[in-house]
Amino acid sequence: MVALPLTAQATRPALNQQNLTRYHEDVSALSNKRYPKKDISVPASAQQIIAHAFETFGSEEKAWHWLERPNGLFAGAAPIDILQTDPARYELIEDELMRIDYGVFV
Fold first, then answer.
1. Structural domains of the chain, count
2. Tell me: the pLDDT tens digits for 72-103?
3. What's the CA gap between 61 and 68, in Å, rounded?
4. CA distances (Å), 75 to each of 5, 46, 51, 83, in order?
5. Is 42 left (phi over 0), alpha (psi -120 to 50) or beta?
6. CA separation for the pair 51, 83 (Å, rounded)
7. CA separation, residue 49 to residues 46, 68, 71, 95 (Å)
8. Residue-number span of the structural domain to which 77 is assigned
9. Percentage of the chain modeled with pLDDT above 70
10. Would residue 19 count as lying in a domain?
11. Do 66 and 52 form a contact (C-beta atoms < 8 A)?
12. DSSP states of 57-80 as a string?
């Protein structure tokens, strides 16, 4: 594939210079963002749930984003916090991952 200068690409239908520039900036920002390997201590059963999240979201980056964000379904706790501290609630996280897998959003 030949890379065209931004001005040449913007002449194609449905593209304008502003959108094309924004797209290139977004791609650059994503490619420069680094996620260090997570060093967490969790039981083997929690590691299986983390692996399920990797499969569900298709990448470690997206999975970690979901795992580390507070979630209203878990009373405002981040799933990774539950995985580190509350084995009794693992099933809640697994159930939510299954709903996401099957496209069932409540």
1. 1
2. 999 999 999 999 899 999 999 999 999 999 99
3. 11
4. 49, 19, 23, 14
5. beta
6. 12
7. 5, 14, 16, 10
8. 44-102
9. 61
10. no
11. no
12. HSSHHHHHHHHHS--GGGTT--HH
